[in-house]
């Protein structure tokens, strides 16, 4: 199954998470109180040492357009070098975190992406949300944030005409609905990371049944 088919499979299950979020939403939080936001940058293309024989994945907002899941197999824009990362102090995406592109249009909304695997660097039009709390509940908070932000109309927050843009400040100050039930938070994480969505077409998923062992006749 190719990347596009996997993306389609997984995307079909996101509305289920939306339904659970709306049903169990019980409070509100301000983003900056629970998450820190990181913006990337673009290494200078005038410096060939930043790109020649690069091995580190680098993405821009175009990669995230209509992308639900960023994985280790997602095609990237370019590969950059360790020198670029060190000299430009580039940040890496964190596994189990949320990404959003800061630039959209009237035709294409801002893309909200779940980062399943980390270690991508990114440019200045991409923001990575990471929980302030580094405890074991990190991934649950991030998964809940993903579905919380899916309820937000980002176009209403954006500025511009043809090309719309968001700011880091507006995202930090955003007040969002929230689900505090840890069992529902675990469900969000399961929906986002369940590998079964990658293995079978959605309409062909069947309940797993154990096969009965047949006794061999002596």
What do these coordinates show?
The structure is a single chain. The protein has 218 residues and is of the alpha+beta class. The protein has one domain: Adenine-n6-DNA-methyltransferase TaqI, Chain A, domain 2. The protein is built from nine helices and twelve strands. It has a five-stranded mixed beta sheet with strand order 2-10-6-8-4. α2 (14-24) packs antiparallel against α8 and α6 (138-149) crosses α8 (182-193). The model is unreliable at 197-216 (pLDDT under 50).
Helices and strands, with pairings:
Layout: H1 3-11, H2 14-24, E1 27-30, H3 31-34, E2 35-39, E3 56-59, H4 61-64, E4 69-70, E5 78-80, H5 82-88, E6 97-101, E7 103-105, E8 112-115, E9 120-122, E10 126-131, H6 138-149, E11 163-165, H7 168-172, E12 175-178, H8 182-193, H9 196-199
Parallel strand pairs: 3-9, 4-8
Antiparallel strand pairs: 1-12, 2-10, 3-5, 6-8, 6-10, 7-11
| Major sheet characteristics | 5 strands, mixed
Decide which structural class fits the backbone.
Answer: alpha+beta
Number of strands: 12
N→C terminal distance? 43 Å
Shape estimate: globular
Order of helices and strands: HHEHEEHEEHEEEEEHEHEHH
């Amino acid at each position: 199954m190719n990347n596009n088919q996997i993306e389609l499979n997984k995307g079909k299950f996101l509305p289920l998470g939306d339904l659970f979020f709306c049903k169990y939403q019980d409070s509100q939080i301000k983003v900056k109180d629970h998450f820190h936001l990181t913006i990337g940058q673009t290494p200078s293309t005038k410096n060939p040492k930043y790109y020649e024989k690069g091995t580190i994945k680098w993405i821009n907002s175009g990669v995230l357009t209509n992308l639900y899941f960023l994985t280790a197999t997602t095609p990237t824009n370019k590969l950059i070098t360790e020198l670029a990362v060190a000299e430009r102090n580039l940040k890496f995406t964190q596994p189990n975190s949320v990404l959003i592109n800061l630039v959209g249009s009237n035709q294409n909304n801002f893309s909200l992406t779940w980062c399943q695997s980390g270690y991508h660097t990114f440019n200045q039009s991409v923001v990575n949300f990471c929980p302030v709390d580094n405890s074991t509940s990190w991934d649950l908070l991030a998964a809940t944030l993903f579905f919380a932000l899916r309820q937000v109309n980002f176009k209403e927050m954006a500025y511009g005409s043809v090309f719309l843009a968001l700011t880091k400040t507006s995202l930090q100050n955003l007040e969002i609905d929230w689900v505090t039930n840890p069992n529902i938070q675990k469900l969000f994480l399961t929906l986002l990371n369940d590998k079964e969505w990658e293995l079978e077409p959605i309409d062909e998923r069947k309940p797993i049944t154990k096969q009965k062992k047949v006794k061999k006749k002596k």
